[in-house]
Amino acid sequence: xxxxxxxxxxxxxxxxxxxxxxxxxxxxxxxxxxxxxxxxxxxxxxxxxxxxxxxxxxxxxxxxxxxxxxxxxxxxxxxxxxxxxxxxxxxxxxxxxxxxxxxxxxxxxxxxxxxxxxxxxxxxxxxxxxxxxxxxxxxxxxxxxxxxxxxxxxxxxxxxxxxxxxxxxxxxxxxxxxxxxxxxxxxxxxxxxxxxxxxxxxxxxxxxxxxxxxxxxxxxxxxxxxxxxxxxxxxxxxxxxxxxxxxxxxxxxxxxxxxxxxxxxxxxxxxxxxxxxxxxxxxxxxxxxxxxxxxxxxxxxxxxxxxxxxxxxxx
Amino acid sequence: xxxxxxxxxxxxxxxxxxxxxxxxxxxxxxxxxxxxxxxxxxxxxxxxxxxxxxxxxxxxxxxxxxxxxxxxxxxxxxxxxxxxxxxxxxxxxxxxxxxxxxxxxxxxxxxxxxxxxxxxxxxxxxxxxxxxxxxxxxxxxxxxxxxxxxxxxxxxxxxxxxxxxxxxxxxxxxxxxxxxxxxxxxxxxxxxxxxxxxxxxxxxxxxxxxxxxxxxxxxxxxxxxxxxxxxxxxxxxxxxxxxxxxxxxxxxxxxxxxxxxxxxxxxxxxxxxxxxxxxxxxxxxxxxxxxxxxxxxxxxxxxxxxxxxxxxxxxxxxxxxxxxxxxxxxxxxxxxxxxxxxxxxxxxxxxxxxxxxxxxxxxxxxxxxxxxxxxxxxxxxxxxxxxxxxxxxxxxxxxxxxxxxxxxxxxxxxxxxxxxxxxxxxxxxxxxxxxxxxxxxxxxxxxxxxxxxxxxxxxxxxxxxxxxxxxxxxxx
Lengths: 315, 476
Prior knowledge:
Chain A is mainly alpha-helical. Chain A has helices spanning 3-35, 44-52, 56-62, 68-77, 85-98, 105-121, 131-152, 157-185, 195-207, 211-218, 224-233, 241-259, 264-278, 281-287, 289-310. Chain A has 15 helices and no strands.
């Protein structure tokens, strides 16, 4: 397989995952803004979504306030914003087009269809009354792509590079979402355990589609440690950090089996994965959740770079 | 411009409006279909093409845009008898082209014999000195050729131009057939049509047969594309996919240990045959265009050492030259010893004083083309041009006569297209695709029919509003 094709498949999957996660964050923002009541002056929900997805700087370059509809449309469909959902779906589709011979025609067509439908749907700014509908369509379209990958791709190197892309992106995104809760949304320790705090945890779980699973596992009790434990260390939850790393590890093993040897990055993944398995939530809180997450995010970048170099993604 | 109705040859109907035998069964089927259902199918076809990304890129000032080549669902039908005659003519012409190219880069007997003026080569940028004295692996210059044919009467097919450089459009030939078979399966159970789906397999086989001696027993074939922004990217990806070949860009390739190798996830692997879809100029920045980022530095050295096959061979583009085209009847006779089976369109070479005078005097009746032009750009269709346009072209001709040739405005044949109001005649041409290998010449039955969708228009190029049709050759 060409290194450039591996790179294309990897980025196709990363962009799809990031687009989907950004759409989930938009859903959370939307939920907060409709539940907090009209008299509230707090507009943190959109700022936090922008900061989490690394778009705040670009946004502030264009706008003076965090008005709901304006922020929503910027994150969703602004073509000048490379991190908007629409731009990322377009990037995913461009990568898919580049590697269309490495993926099945169903994967290509569902990605192309996803892009075609979204571009059409988002030709004009989204109005207040259909913000929710648009997000539902995005979830549906990206789910179709995932279904096509799952259902039609050979379990070979192409599939493994695609999955590695998905889980590197997911690990990064979940870590950022968790970090933002602690670092941005709750600046004062005095708020910990307050009503605001609990509501924020709830929305955070929603953003990773983990609210029901968490409540089911914990009989409804919301506490910071429990939730952090769930998002970082619960191997059963498909958006947890440890789940993502386990998957990267198993896809690296898939590559090693196919190629007959392990790449140097394999050892790095094994090492970081083992470290995560040894961690426990008390230690993490003791030495600081924010520092832990920052380290995790840079570990994930390092893994991505090592894999890119080992498999000759670029010249 | 509009030709008089009595001038043109319609392939479906006799002048009295009754159907010709080749189309009888199709028309019978067509008349039995519900028009509303046909209109629905027509719409569906567009969606199918868009969804599978069968598009070509168009660049405007603002942004790149992916467009569809409009597909018309009325097939263009050729009888087995007509096709046999055409294939004999095409095969003869393609054999002559390869012999001509070999001669051109060796002893130039045709120039010595006085049949071709030496200026035709000297002043020609498509002539590559790097190819002189070199024989490509397998002795083949043009592995893939597209011969553009126009029809003006019952038995009159003429060659409009030869595409020996990098003929495109074959993916549309294949996809048009797939689309027709998916939309109207019952048509194909009633009417025996010769299949085209073998093309990619035959292409892979011919490329295999031209692999260099150092190649692996199962040669590695790669299709070289300029990338996803190229107008024919879909075709490049499609052909690579159908052949089971790698689709590579220049950035994937480099010369290592005297071979051209592609960057794979596990290291560099040698390429045996490169089906390149980039022009000569961009092939090797060390040899040709130094600013090219589409090429592979050093590939020409590897080529000249017989360590890779490049298809088509560099330097074959000279055969596409429209001034050289006018010598094709002589070229065919010189190398085959036979009279050409397929006629050329009569051509005035404006570099010749007498011809220039004739062209200037009769400009309003003629079609004028640039010698190196393609895609229907930079040409003048006299009968359709305004006074001002004619005058502007007259000046161009006087300033640089050698850059132009002129031809009579041909009454191209018509085939009906499907419109909301029913069948309506439109002008067509035909590009059959020819594969050349040491094992022989293969011509896929049919080819790409291009159709001018505008009523009366003679320009079939997709870049200028042309569409395509499925082209059928009937079984005997």
